[in-house]
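Support request, please re-run this one:
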Amino acid sequence: MHISNKCSIAVHCLVFIHEYSQKHKVTSELLSLSSGCNPVIIRNIMSALKKDGIISVKFGTGGAALSCPPEEITLYRICSCVEPDALDKLVGIHKRPSLLCPVGRNIQSILNHSYDRIRIDLKKSMESITLSEILKEYHEKINLDNSTSL
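Re-run finished. Output below.
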């Protein structure tokens, strides 16, 4: 079980866009270099972020920018727009247990109750983390790195 790396790539892109879009034209090629991901993957992620209204991309020349304040962008919003079924993949139930077995006949409904609670808790937790908080941690890390390298 894991959260797809699409979510972390999307967060990486959003931090980069926030930090550099005022000074540079942020393109999928530039984000690809920064993230170490294929530009096609970056374009797919950017498309999903744009469709959700998190970013805007200039028509023609390109260049991405945030479309809303970082305080309004939650980790759940980011992950759910790039991987809509992420929570279901994270907490899934095997599809074909034996109907001949009492456990097999009932395990899905039994687990659904528990797994729904986990999904709800995870969603709440992810909704409580904003891009603003992630940016704050990024800046703290950058400042710490800069102060220790002197």
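Residues 5-148 form a domain with the Arc Repressor Mutant, subunit A fold (CATH 1.10.10.10). The chain has a mean pLDDT of 91.
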